[in-house]
Amino acid sequence: MALLAYLKSLFILQLLMGFVFVVSGLIINFIQLCTCILWPINKQLYRRINCRLSYSLWSQLVMLLEWWSGTDCTLYTDQATVDKFGKEHVIIILNHNYEIDFLCGWTMCERYGILGSSKVLAKHELLKVPLIGWTWYFLEIVFCKRKWEEDRNTVYRGLSRLKDYPEYMWFLLYCEGTRFTEKKHQISMQVAESKGLPKLKYHLLPRTKGFTTTLQCLKGTVTAVYDVTLNFKDNQTPTLLGIVNGKKYKADMSVRRFSVEDIPDNEEECANWLHKLYQEKDALQEYYNKEGKFPGPTIIPPRRLWTLLNFLFWATLLLSPLIKFACGVVVSGSPLLIIGFIIFLIIASIAIRRLIGVTEVKKTGSSYGNQEAKKQN
Questions:
Q1: Which of 26, 63, 148, 320 could connect to 307 by a Cys-Cys bridge, CB 3.0–4.6 Å?
Q2: Strands, sheet with 119-123, edge to edge from the N-terminal-most edge strand
Q3: Residues 47-72: pLDDT tens digits?
Q4: Does residue 254 lie within any of the structural domains?
């Protein structure tokens, strides 16, 4: 085990894995670009192909979580809810506390066969991120600038397009709008007090506009809302860099299913329903902190081999010529070639580190709370 942990910590292995992810992502993005010619001919075929292509990229990250780091994911829910996983369009409400919360969500999507068709209401800045933003663009992900006056038409148009999506999708919403930090929490609770809303201990005040709009636009398509509350054993603070280094975490996810029919249609009542939901999420976090687990039965869905096989396919395809080229450079003895190859490795390592930085809490927080007069919807 010590040897395996040492191997996982080797920078060269991590760099090779990053190389596979980046190059395969660029290949996938190019293929996605080529599929655009299908859109005016057969929109649903375009969508099904892009679901498979995005799966091939995202599953490499899921592989890191499941097979490389060996992170465990336990669900706290009932069997009746699990039986509906992957068999209906749903909206997912997830707390936004950790760098890898999206990855834990993706691993559940993968295990129930909907990773490729998973959606998110994403901040517009991510559209500019290579591989991630580009893949999401072809997947018809809805991007917003978190300024409702500018986002209104874009969000309505993007959500309306998804009404006839051919694959079952889980549409992720981070209703808090940004990752939880103590500073943001203090500002958020000041807003709650000014609005006469109950204060939350473990969450930011939810921004209701995104939820009410998504529910309104996808009414008739989505049949349920899944409230997911994520936490980690032993007060762990997981990071994507920790996953890359092979560190194992233990994730617990409480999942509650609410039928769309039981959620009010009226926008104000729907917003109040969401505030009440976050009060319940807060109570769940309080329970977890005291008991070390969520209430209810546990289910551990088995990991699937597909993520590992997919990575091995890309690794075999891409690393063979790279290693052959590297050996040729060394054998040639040319200082110019060797220096050029070393520069290539340095640039590649910096690029991969910057991609990892996209998930880091300290680098991705919004300007939430920087302006006292800033309003929450």
A1: 63
A2: 142-144, 119-123, 170-173, 90-94, 224-232, 250-259, 72-76, 298-299
A3: 999 999 999 999 999 999 999 999 99
A4: yes
